[in-house]
Amino acid sequence: LQVLDLPPGYVEQETALELKEIERRRAAYLSGRVRPPIEGRTAIVVDDGIATGATIRAALVAVRRRKPKRLVLAVPVAPPDTLDRAAPVSLNRVPTALQRKRQDGT
Prior knowledge:
Elements: H1 10-30, E1 42-46, H2 54-64, E2 70-74, H3 80-86, E3 92-93, H4 97-104
Parallel strand pairs: 1-2, 2-3
C-alpha cells in the first residue's frame, strides 16, 4: 500500500463504503425476509458463470461461515483452474457438460 501513495485513511474509508454497499444489497435482495438457516443443511450456491472466481469464492466463504453440512457449487461455465481454486471452499462440485466431455474425450 505504501507504493500506491494513498492518502491517510483511504483504505478504511473505502472499506466502510463497500461494507455499507454490501448491507444495502443484502437488504434489497432479502426484501425484508429473514435469511434461512443453513447450519447442518446442504447449501447450494448457484452462479450463471464464473470468470476470475473472486466473487464466487467470497460467496462460498460467507456461506461456509454459516456451517452448512455440505456446500455445493453449481455453475454451468467456469475455467477449470478457477474451479480448482474454489475447491478448498466448496468440496462438492457437479461436473458440467463441458467438463464431462473433456474427461471422456468427446
